[in-house]
Amino acid sequence: MSDKLRVGLIGAGLMGHGMGKNIVTKGFSLTVMAHRNRKPIEDLLSLGAKEAKSPKEIAAASDLVILCVTGTPEVEATIYGENGLLGAMRKGLIIADCSTAVPQSTIKIAADVAEKGGHYVDTPLTRTPREAEAGKLAVMTGGEKAVLDTIRPVIECFADTIVHAGPVGAAHTLKLINNFIALGNAAVAAEAIVAAQRAGVGMEALRDIVLGGGARSLMFERIIKVPIENDDSAAQFAIRNARKDMRYYTNMTGELPVTSFMAEAVHQPLVLADNLGFGERFVPRLIDALDKANGGKK
């Protein structure tokens, strides 16, 4: 393996496009694979990336394959499916999974990849597509230190914060806990904002008092932009994906086992919003979904 890793990227969506852009413009060879939306792929190709037609082709062209797909079903299909990565595995190939995934699945995949001579690490992300484009994501890592040290120069292309969580699976565990906290703040903020609207509280007044005191949270700061500016771009994360992440978390707590009263409560408004047709909307639109559920017209 040369000093300059050849990188493959599967999942050039909202987060993956910014990651890929930073990888290819900072001097790494990049091979990408299209899914539903070709626009981000075409942009990466214009910057010098190459295109492959299958995970198998990505593996053949890469020393490191980065996965940035929706969740565990998509990860497992990419690994185990026809023309998948496992069938194309060779000694020394590294797979870094940036998805939000079930930790137990991650551990199983890592064992299967190791049997074929490869390495599998979990490298989930925090922050937003805006930070992905700016190369300022935060990344949690799980796996062997030597492998993570090998791929660190690539991760540093799109991240300014890298935290080692522990062995394989630890980073995906940490990501689920992080998302529970963030989505819990989002659910509480959305419910409070709807109540404030119905009570006739001014949204600017609500913003100023919350952001000036102990109730402040980054998710509130992002979500309050919806009623004030009709802007949901500060948290570009689909409600359906948030629903999925919360179910991953509650499944994990059930297996530990530990109680998760609050997590179950956080999950329900996401289910409601998805059932009301808001699943593809960004998380700040929980406000609109809860307003509709309470008799509003949105």
How is this structure best described in words?
The chain is α/β, with parallel strands linked by helices and 298 residues long. It folds into 2 domains: 6-166, NAD(P)-binding Rossmann-like Domain (Rossmann fold, 3-Layer(aba) Sandwich); 173-293, Orthogonal Bundle (N-(1-d-carboxylethyl)-l-norvaline Dehydrogenase, domain 2), CATH 1.10.1040. It has helices at residues 14-25, 39-46, 55-60, 72-80, 103-115, 129-134, 145-158, 170-199, 203-211, 218-223, 225-229, 239-255, 261-278, 286-293; strands at residues 6-10, 29-33, 50-52, 64-67, 94-97, 119-122, 125-126, 137-142, 159-166. Helix 8 packs across helix 12 (239-255), helix 8 packs across helix 14 (286-293) and helix 12 runs antiparallel to helix 13. The mean pLDDT is 96.
Question: What are the SSEs and their pairings?
Answer:
Elements: E1 6-10, H1 14-25, E2 29-33, H2 39-46, E3 50-52, H3 55-60, E4 64-67, H4 72-80, E5 94-97, H5 103-115, E6 119-122, E7 125-126, H6 129-134, E8 137-142, H7 145-158, E9 159-166, H8 170-199, H9 203-211, H10 218-223, H11 225-229, H12 239-255, H13 261-278, H14 286-293
Parallel strand pairs: 1-2, 1-4, 2-3, 4-5, 5-6, 8-9
Antiparallel strand pairs: 7-8
Helix pairs in contact: 1-2, 1-7, 8-12, 8-13, 8-14, 12-13, 13-14
